[in-house]
Amino acid sequence: MDKTERLVDFPAFLASMAHDMKNSLSMLLNTLDEVVGTCTSEKCPSHRHLSQMQYEATRVNFNLIQLLTLYKMDRDQFSINISHYPVSELIEEIALQNRPLLDYKGIEILNECPDDLTWFMDSNLISGVINNILNNAYRYTKSRILIRANEINGWLVLSIEDDGQGYPEEMLGTGVQKGSGVSFKTGSTGLGLYFASMVVKLHKNKDREGFISISNGGEYGGGCFTLTLP
Amino acid sequence: MAIDYKHKKILIVDDFSSFRRLMVRMLESLGAKDIDDAYSGDSAIQKMESKAYDIVMCDYNLGHDKKDGQQILEEAKHRGLIRYSSIFVMLTAENTMPMVMGAVEYQPDDYLIKPISKEMVTMRLEKILKRKTDFEDIETAVRNKEYLRAITLCDERAINIPRYMLEYLRLKGDLCITIGRYDEAAAVFEKVLSMREISWAKMGMGKVHFHKGEYLKAKDMFKSVLDDNKTYMEAYDWLAKALQELEALDEAQKVLLTAIGISPKAILRHQTIGDISGKIGDYDAAEEAFKSAIAIGKHSCFKSPSYYTGLAKTMIKKDSPDEALQVLNSARNEFKGNIEAMFQTVSMEGIVYKGMNRKEDARKTIQEATRLLEKLSGKVPMEATMDLARVCFDLGEKEKGMQFMQNIVRNNHDNDKVLAMVQGVFKDSQLEEEGAKVITTTKNEVIKLNNEGVSLIEEGKLEDAIEYFEKAAKGLPESKIINANAAQALMMYMQKSGTNEKYLYTASQYLDRIKSIDPSYDKYQKLLNLYEKVAGSSKKPDA
Known about the structure:
The structure holds 2 protein chains of 2 kinds.
Chain A: H1 3-6, H2 10-38, H3 47-74, E1 83-86, H4 87-104, E2 108-112, E3 118-121, H5 123-140, E4 144-152, E5 155-162, H6 175-178, H7 189-201, E6 204-205, E7 208-209, E8 211-217, E9 222-229
Parallel strand pairs in A: 2-4
Antiparallel strand pairs in A: 1-3, 4-5, 5-9, 6-7, 8-9
Helix pairs in contact in A: 2-3, 3-5, 4-5, 5-7
Chain B: E1 9-13, H1 17-29, E2 34-38, H2 41-50, E3 55-59, H3 69-78, E4 87-92, E5 110-113, H4 118-143, H5 147-160, H6 165-178, H7 182-195, H8 199-211, H9 215-228, H10 233-245, H11 249-262, H12 267-279, H13 283-297, H14 305-317, H15 321-334, H16 339-355, H17 359-375, H18 382-394, H19 398-411, H20 416-428, H21 432-458, H22 462-475, H23 480-497, H24 501-517, H25 522-539
Parallel strand pairs in B: 1-2, 1-3, 3-4, 4-5
Helix pairs in contact in B: 2-3, 4-5, 5-6, 6-7, 6-8, 7-8, 8-9, 8-10, 9-10, 10-11, 11-12, 12-13, 12-14, 13-14, 14-15, 14-16, 15-16, 16-17, 16-18, 18-19, 19-21, 20-21, 21-22, 21-23, 22-23, 23-24, 23-25, 24-25
């Protein structure tokens, strides 16, 4: 009949496409990993390019993860999986994952989190959010990233600060929460924050729900992303 | 805790050879030498049958219409192909796993999302190993059936190791349910829920309500779990159980159909849908459900003759007795050599023949079933036996039918639910009065049998009592009181004359039987204490 009927279930089609792309990307990333492992920057002239490829592929991978997760949330097929998780360990793990790239750029990550701090969260989702922020920070940071986590008045407050230029003025403010920062014209930065805000909102306990905020300044004078979980 | 990969036996399961090669290289670079790989579930199981792997890394999605990672894990655990100390890691392409929430006992040690870096693998495996070490003595206690000791350990750890506090509480709650200490379990889950409305604690609470017969409360609890998390598959099954108890069969069917929509491979769920659908006269749904169960069963270790008998029963209702016979015939082929399965199949054949009015064939099946029943040791399939008795009564073979029914009563003389079912059969066959008499005399027989054994104990003739109850328990494997006294005689003997491994093991077998029938049984609770006292003293000879 009309056009909408011919494109059977476009979002579902998109999702399975994204799934397939992700499989290929996994192979690509793993292979790149191996290649990078065999060449060091002194000996291998293509090392710089390889690192760049690794970075971009990782970025695409994070985007696909977000896309698939948002798709499932939209379709009501998504369920959060909360467990009691050691926060410091989570940060360590994420730092380790991102280390090769950050090392290459000479960016240092500092983990300031009490060892015995545990929190209720979906660790997969939260590490997705943090990975994404770090991935962006890689682009904008000069030399240092600080991840700080603390319990404040019954909330987990986790912030990621860098010494870059900070967030552009127009992104600061209330838009972040509602996802109105998503502009399909200007690129995916807004999408990342939208994803983050969706994820933290799923973290609920007794009438309280998580939220994110962004600001500039902080200890290093750059951008500061904070997620707060009940 | 660095892992020495050199001596680890590792299995990689993935349908893509390039990925398998990649994983092999990655693990080799960590120092692993003994790495196998498999491209499918069947070949993975085959490899696990012949080698005890320390680490299995298994992709979840192994291709359309193939065994998936979860099925491999379930089969491997069910058949004891992986030990507690082995590590099973599920690899997935996404972080939004649609069916991760299987039963706790069938959960992998961890999920890893592709792409997987070397750093990630090392870190996660080390973490899992550390966790296993931390939980080792509790697991050992559970394996040795020293549940009370395991619970005490959980209590201590929850205080001493705060990072695992919730896990210890969860373990404790589940253990308390296992051994029928429902109030204690409720206290644990309540404590957790006061901290956080976490799904597994709600789930535990729901189970406690269910076991205590508070089905309405249980229903609400399970519903609330599903409100939070639509892929918590266990909650659908328990919700349906509660609804069945509340006699809301239509709703129970609907709940399970929803669950099947999400996770289509759960074989037992298909069977339950078949059973419920049959009860509410929705034979089309029943047919579909049993057919699905049979189809999935071809790839599963959980195949059972009851899917076939269920389908046959449905086909009778749909006036297709020939098809029913066909189904049962394929069951005969599928379960050759399995006496219990044959007994169930043959009993159902009897019903079909009876319905077709082929009396001679029906009589033959009764004879065959009787022979099979004699060969059957241990648990007798109750439902099939009742079905068979009905056929006997219908064909005028009253004596034979009574014999079958007596067997059930003897084994369940103190189980009111079963006795009510027995009465139902008698009523349907217009044998209500005579049946009631049979129930009473049989009950008395068992009581007398038990009392004689008890007096042996009271007279201190413990060795005689052990022998007496051993014989009794062989004949009545499902009688709570007989099993309890059999265990008690053994333990009293050990208290007096010192423990020995054989008796300890036998006693634990008796206790296990009671646990599977009714863990909240008073006498079981007391015997558990006694068992651990006896078992404990065997380890500390000086104590």
